[in-house]
Amino acid sequence: MAQEDEAAPAAQTEQTTVSIDDEQIESTSMHAAIKQKFIEGGAGFMAFVVLCLIFGLAIATERVIYLNLSDTNTKKFIAGFEDALNNGGIEAAKEYCRNTRGPVASIFYQGLSRYDQGIDMVEKSVVSYGSVQMGLLEKGMSWISLFIALGFLGTVIGMIEAFDQIQAAGDMSPALVAGGIKVALITTVGGLIVAMILQVFYNYCVSKVEGIVNNMEDASVSMLDILVKYEQKNK
């Protein structure tokens, strides 16, 4: 019985070791397969596809971080703004806006800076600066679109290069045609993967921008209402 008890842990240890070795082999073989497909697709062109992915992801990541930092709790901010305005006046409301991040606070501050010129000037300032903030939110989006287009372009270039090789060889043997089409399909898959990954980030950023812009518009209307009430109260 003692020998059987000692043999059981040894068998479990051996099984665990074999399982770990299998996972390592599988991981190594997958890495080798990806590397092989990369080489087969043409190192020059596939490197271009990878660079599109890297630069596209860098810009998309920066946009995601910026947009998330720009997205604030608008209702909470408006409540605090109204409280600061009623209790401390215009200067207190300005200070509250300065201490709050996000485009909504910046728009409110610009509007308050023109308060002494009348509500109409405040409204014009809010509209004008709202366009500026919208431009900042959409900054860099065109670059993501460009890298998506370059990814899709890879699907066409791969096919062209493959058939150029067939034409140069002047031979329509099944092996040559199959090899050319294989290269074309590998480059196509690479380009589509890059395009799809970046498209996900692009759609997220577009949705985020639309949400922030809607909050900016709603908040601007609320700000004007608050200022009109404040003006009437202090006449």
Walk me through this protein's architecture.
90% of the residues lie in helices and 0% in strands. The chain is built from seven helices and no strands. α3 packs across α4 and α6 runs antiparallel to α7. The longest helix has 60 residues. The radius of gyration is 30 Å and the shape is rod-shaped.
Radius of gyration: 30 Å
Query: How many helical elements?
Result: 7
Number of strands: 0
Distance between the termini: 98 Å
Helix percent reads over 70%
Flag low-confidence runs: 13-22
Structural class: mainly alpha
Molecular shape? rod-shaped
Tell me the major beta sheet: none
Please tell me the overall pLDDT.
78
User: H/E element string?
Assistant: HHHHHHH
What is the strand content?
A: under 5%
What is the element layout, followed by pairings?
Blueprint lengths: L1 H39 L2 H28 L3 H25 L4 H11 L5 H20 L2 H29 L4 H60 L2
Task: Briefly characterize the structure.
This protein is mainly alpha-helical and 235 residues long.
Output the keywords.
single chain; 7 helices; 235 residues; 90% helix; mainly alpha; rod-shaped
